[in-house]
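Sequence only, no structure available. Ideas?
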Amino acid sequence: MAVGKFKSYSLYIQGTELNAFYAWMGLPYFALPENGVSLMIGQDITIYGDELINVPIINDLKVTYNCAVGTQSGNNLIISTIAENIGTHPCQITIKNGNRLIDTYLISINISAQKTSGIINILRIGDSTMGGEEIGIEIENSLQNNTINFIGTQGTIRKHEGYPGKTFVWLATDALSPFVKAGVIDITAYFKDKNIATPDIVYLRLGINDSGSYIIRSDAHIDYIITNVDALISAFLNFNSNLKVIVALPTTCENTGDGWNANYDESTNIQDWYLENIHHLQKALSDRYSNGLFNPRVKCSYEWIGLDRDNGYPKIDGKHSNGVHFSDALQMGRGLAAYINPEIKPLGVELINQSLWATAPYWWSYNASATFDGVKITNSGGVSTMLSAPHNIPINIGKTYRIEMTFTGSDALSFPFFTTGGDTVVYLPYAPGTFVAYRVATGPYFVFASWNFVGTITKLSMREVL
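Reply:
I predicted one. C-alpha cells follow.
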C-alpha cells in the first residue's frame, strides 16, 4: 500500500483527499461515447472495469455488462471477436460502489472486418508512453496483411515523435517542440525542414504529464489544455486536406499504489488525485474530439480501456515497480490497430501479370545479356534495357502507385532504378532484397531499368493506391 493511502472510506473522506473522493462519488468522469468502442475481427480484448471511471485505489468497485458479445469476468468484459460479430452491439455498463449505484452508461461495441492489402502512413506523437518500437510491432502484427509506414524523427525502424515528460501544451507552444517555429505552430516547416513524408494519420498520445497530481485540476485548466490541442490539430488539418487525426485517450496507472509510491512522493503527489485528473482530461478529450464532433477528420481512440492495470504494469517480486509506464505493448498496440484499420487505403488489382512481366510488350527491347526463364530476369552484365508498359497497363496521371521489386545484385555500383515518364530517377538501395516505393504517376507509364546491373529480378509488382 502506498504511503498516504487511507484504509477506509470513513478515514478517506476525513482526510485531505475529500475533494477527489467527492468528485468520484458525485461526479464520476466516464469517457466512452454512446457510439462507442471499435474492435476488429481476429482480436481478443478485455474491457477492464477499473479503467472506466475515476475510482480511488482503495475502492469497492462493482461493474456489470449487459451485452450480446463478450463474457463477464469479475469487473471485466472479455470479448473474442468472430466474423458473426461484425456490426454494432449495444452494451449497458452499470457501475456501483458496493451496493450504491454510481451510474449506468449505454455505449456500443462496433466490430469490423480487418482490411487487407492496404497501406497507411502514420505519424505518432506522444510522451514516454508512446511505446514507439514495441507498440509499432504489435500494430503491424494486428494489421499484418497491410503495409504500415511509421514516420517521424524519433526511434529506429518504427519512427515516431515521442518526447518523455512532455505535454500537449509543450507541443503547441514550446520553442523546442518539433512543431513550433519562430514562436508559432508551423506544420509545413516540420515536414519540409525534416523531410518527413505526409501522413495519412496523425496519432496523438499525451495527457499523463498534463495531469499532475499536486492539485485537483480545475475545469479552467482542462480548458487551457484543450485550447492547445485544438491549435495543434487544426494546424495538421490545414496542412493537408486528406490527413486525419486520432486523439488517443491517455492511460491511467497501476492499481495497487506500489509502483506509484516507487516513483513519486505520495505526501505531495497523490495517486488518487492523479486518477481524477486523468479521467477528467479523458472525458474532456472524448467530448471534444470523438466521432467527428470537432471536425469530420478527427476521432478518438479508446485502447486504454483494454490495458490491465494489474498485469499490464511492470512488477518486481510481484509488486508494481512503476506507476504510469505500462509494460504490455500487446494490449495497447492491438487496441490501437482497430482504430487505424478503417483508415487504411486499399490497393487496386495487380497491374503486372507475373507470368508475362519479362516478355513483350512489357520489355521495350531485350538486351543480349539478359534472359528470362519464366520466373526471373537474369542479367550477366552490360546495360539491361528498360522494362515498361506504355500501352497495355492503365496508368492514371496524378494517381499514386505502389511499386515492389525483389532483386539480387552482385555489383554494389550498379543497381536497378525506376522513373515515371520523365520524373526524377529513384535509385533502389544497394542491398539486395525487396524494395517498395510509392510514386505519383507524372507520365503515361512507369519505366524500370538497370544500369550495368548484374543479378536477378524475381518479382515486379505495381498497384494503384485507391
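Residues 1-26, 384-391, 411-417 have pLDDT under 50 and may be disordered.
Hope that gets you unstuck.
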